[in-house]
Amino acid sequence: MNSWPSVDYQDWSDTCDTLHAHSQVLGKLAATLAAPEPQLQHAALRLTARGWETLALPVGDHSGALVLGLDLRTHEVFVEHSGGAGSRVALAPNRSVGEVTRELLGAVTTLAGPVELELSPQEVWWTVALDQDDEHTTYDTGAVERYFAAATSAALVLSAYRAPYRGRSTPVNAWWGSFDLSVSLFSGSPAQPPSTDFIMRNAMDSQEVAVGWWPGDPRYPKAAFYAYAHPHVTGFAQSSPAPEAARWEETLGEFVLDWNDVCSSRDPHETALSFARSALRHACTVCQWDPALLASAEADPPPIR
Predict the structure, then answer these.
(1) Rounded to an integer, what distance in angstroms lies between the CA atom of residue 48 and that of residue 78?
(2) Cα separation, 92 vs 277, whole angstroms
(3) Rg (CA), the chain
(4) What backbone phi and psi angles, to 5 degrees, belong to 199?
(5) Which of 105, 143, 216, 260 would bridge with 12, disulfide CB 3.0–4.6 Å?
(6) Looking at beta carbons, which pairs linking 33-42 to residues 24 or more positions away fall under 8 Å?
(7) What are the pLDDT tens digits along the chain (305 aa)?
C-alpha cells in the first residue's frame, strides 16, 4: 500500500490561511509582471520540488527575469534574478504576513526596481491588505510539510491525468486565489462566463472540464479532489463517477472525492486518477464533446507512437 499523508484542515486551518496569504503576494507579482494569457494563465503559479513558484517574470529594466517562490522545505520566501542575485525571507511562527510581505517587496525593489501592486487579498474571507496583515501569524512547519507532501501527490495525479490529452489544456496550475491545484481541458468551443466580474469573464470564456485538489477551506473543511464542467448542463449531476466514495456535492456544484477516502484506498494514486478520468468521461459525454478528444485523454491514440 502506498502511504499518503493525512491533511486535516481543522488541525492546520490557521497555518493554511497564513500560507494562502503568502501565495497571494507571489500571484499578484506574476499577474502584474507577466504578459497576459487566455484564462489568466500568466497569473497562475506552479508546484515544484521546492513549493509554490512563479514562472520567469520579466523585469521592467530588461535586465533579465525574476522567479519568486515559497520554499516549503526550508520555510522561506525567495526571489531570484536570472543574473544571479537573490534574497530569502524567513517563514516562521509569529512572523506576520505583513512583515514578510514588506521584506519580500523590498527585496524585489532592490533586484528589479519598484513594482506597483494592488495588495488587497482576493477570493478569501479576510480583507486587510497583505502588506498590513498582522493577523495571520501562525506557521506550523510540520503542518506545512504534510500539506506539501499531500499537494505533491495530488499534483502528480493531475499531471498523469492531463498528459495524453491532445486538445488544449493547462499545466497543473497552483491558484493563489482559491489556494488549489487544478488542470483544465478545453473542447475548443467558446462559453459564456457565469458572471461579468474580471476573473470570471477572463477565466471562464471557454468550454472546459476542470479537475483539481484543495486542502480544505471554511466552505468545505476537508481536503478533496474535485471536478466540474463549464458551462454546466442539465443532468450533469446525475452520475456516479468512480470510485464509489465519489459524489456530487450540491453546495459546491462539483463532484468531490475526499482525501481521506483516497488515502485509505489500496492504491491512492490510481484511485484519484480513476476519479479524474471518470469525471472527464461523464462530462465529455453529457456536454457532447468531440469523442476523439475523450479518446485521446484515455491514451487512444497513445501520446507517443
Answers:
(1) 14
(2) 39
(3) 19
(4) -65, -50
(5) 143
(6) 33/57, 33/58, 33/59, 33/60, 33/66, 33/115, 34/58, 38/202, 38/205, 38/206, 39/170, 39/184, 39/202, 39/203, 39/204, 39/205, 39/206, 40/199, 40/202, 40/203, 41/170, 41/173
(7) 468 999 999 999 999 999 999 999 999 999 999 999 999 999 999 999 999 999 999 998 788 999 999 999 999 999 999 999 999 999 999 899 999 999 999 999 999 998 999 999 999 999 999 999 999 999 999 999 999 999 999 999 999 999 999 999 999 999 999 999 999 999 999 999 989 999 999 999 999 999 999 999 999 999 999 999 999 898 899 888 999 999 999 999 999 999 999 999 999 999 999 999 999 999 999 999 999 999 999 999 999 99
Contact 175, 46 (CB under 8 A): no
Q: Cell numbers at residue 13, please? A: 486551518
